[in-house]
Amino acid sequence: MEEGFFDRGGLDLFMVAMASVDPSTGAIRAMLGGTDFTEEQFNLATQGRRQPGSSYKSYVLTAAFAQGYGPSDTISGLGPCIFDDGGNRPYEVQNFGNGGGSLGSLTSMTTSSSNCAFVRLGLLVGLDDVVQTTNDMIGLEEGRLQPFPSISLGAQELTPLEQAVGYSVLANDGMRMEPFLITRIEDRNGRVLFEHVPTGRQVVREQTARNVTRVLASNVTGGTGTRARLASGQPAAGKTGTAQNFEDAWFAGYTPQLSTAVWMGHPEEKISMRGVGGRNVTGGSFPAQVWNAFMERALADQPVVEFETGPGQGRNEFLFLPDEKCSVNVQVGEEVRRFSISCSLVDFVDGGFAFGDTAICRNQEIPQPDGSFLVQDVPCSERERLLNPTTTTTTTSTTTTTVPTTTTAAPTTTAAPTTTAPPATTTSTTAAPTTTEPTTTTTEPVTTTSEPVTTTTTADGGSDDGGADVGGGGAPSTTDGSG
Predict the structure, then answer these.
(1) pLDDT in tens, 190-199
(2) Is the Cβ–Cβ distance between 317 and 106 less than 8 Å?
(3) Cα dihedral 149, 151, 156, 159 in deg (nearest 10)
(4) Per-residue pLDDT tens for 154-181?
(5) Where does 58-138 show beta strands of DSSP type E?
(6) Is 196 exposed, middle or buried (0-12, 13-18, 19+ CB in 10 A)?
(7) Which terminus of the chain is more exposed, N or C, with fewer CB under 10 A?
(8) Other Cβ atoms within 10 Å of 212 Cβ, number
């Protein structure tokens, strides 16, 4: 690494640990675990367990793709977000920098390192499956990782070697090769006393691994890991990670030839790396640069090898939790009212939510040409048009069947982008949409907000990842970093 790679500015406190594995054999090709083993017998590369932050999201993504989800499926990354962790208090999650987040594909949620999207995805996939996928890829013993919601943000600890092995599975089309250090032992006469025979096991389906690689390669070319991009043109894939309060920073990534994980932090304590070397250290800063510098050298004499990538599709669905609510904004005159409704009854349209065809709004006061109001049930998708009549159009509707079953309203989530309608006379109403399924109809109360709604969104992308995961799940909190 060239002289002056780091500006000093506090860097003397911190160290880098690294491990690099050949995905095709499991051979450990390089390791950096400390400055001098004669002075310190603790190997940070093999013994230094630290929170991986957002670099753990690759395991969540692998578990999701193994269940049939894909890069093009859509999920909400709007924040802040609150989840039920099964404990005594809700599990509240913030995106990095308390950003509002956005709705988007699993690819864009990865490249922007959305905390809310990945906690939601982990719960949707099943945390037991996420843990099992991690165990299979890395080779961890059962019981070391616990299925708490915060695991999706990297709240439980791994070593650099474990990360390099886990990511090597993706580089090797889902085949995990047992890592090893010694290839052969000979006596002084050249007689072979020991020779390692590589052993491996398919732990992830080939197509699943290739789809994950497609997403993680996008993260290097245009997401939080752009500083890892190799000047040689060799394609690379990887994920950044930044733990709570910038105490640990990671870049874990791979090419077809080599899988390497880099950690940076204090070797003994949890010390924030704010203002270090002129910046707050995230995984996308110094760790990605170290990874880049090492990989450029390690692959200097090798030809460029392209990834074998999957089709990059999926179910092309909007993904949500069973009891999750989505917010739909409706223009009523000059006001925008927000409706919280089951996500199963909305459509994902132009980056926001709209009422689906099966949603029924009950007891709506529909203005009539003579100035009176007709109370009736209407399709929610028609509600905005019916509540905003023009002076030249008479609106008629057929009353739908009123249904008796009600459910308890859930908290309103962050609003999706608002829709607009022609100016009309403002009417004050309180609506409660109902839901209709193919065989049953249910009534679902909703929450309306009469004040104008401001939608906050954050564009996908950026050079740093992260986010704060506050409490919950019985595990340490973590600042997810995409940095």
Answers:
(1) 999 999 999 9
(2) no
(3) 180
(4) 999 999 999 999 999 999 999 999 999 9
(5) 74-76, 81-83, 91-93, 103-105
(6) middle
(7) N
(8) 29
In 3D space, the residue among 458, 474, 471 whose CA is nearest the CA of residue 113 turns out to be 458
Contact 49, 36 (CB under 8 A): no
CA–CA distance from 454 to each of 177, 328, 337, 381, 416 (Å)? Answer: 51, 13, 11, 21, 9
Residues 6 or more apart whose Cβ sits within 8 Å of residue 30: 18, 19, 20, 260, 294, 298
Q: Say whether pTM exceeds 0.85.
A: no
Q: Which helix (H) or strand (E) holds 45?
A: helix 44-47
How far apart, in Å, do the first and last CA atoms of the chain sit? 21
Q: Which residue has the tokens 């074998």?
A: 308
Q: What is the pLDDT of residues 344-367, one digit of tens each?
A: 998 888 778 888 888 888 878 888
Rounded to an integer, what distance in angstroms lies between the CA atom of residue 187 and that of residue 189? 5
- b/e sequence 11-38, b meaning 16+ C-beta within 10 Å: beebbbbbbbbbbbbbbbeebbbbeeee
Measured CA to CA, the distance from residue 178 to residue 28 in angstroms comes to 10
| Alpha helices, H only, 174-273 | 206-222
The beta-strand segments (E) located in 318-428 are 318-319, 325-332, 335-342, 346-349, 352-355, 359-367, 373-379
Nearest to 415 by CA among 343, 328, 341, 330: 328
- C-alpha torsion angle, residues 347, 348, 354, 355 (rounded to 10): 10
Report the percent of the chain where pLDDT is more than 90: 57
CA distance 15 to 33: 9
Residues near 358 by Cβ (< 8 Å), separated by ≥ 6? 345, 435, 436, 437
- Residue 6 in this model has a pLDDT that exceeds 60: no
**Per-residue tokens: 165:** 């092995």
Instruction: For strands 74-76 and 318-319, give the pairing.
Output: parallel
Residues 6+ apart with CB under 8 A from 377: 360, 361, 362, 363, 364, 399, 400, 401, 402, 434
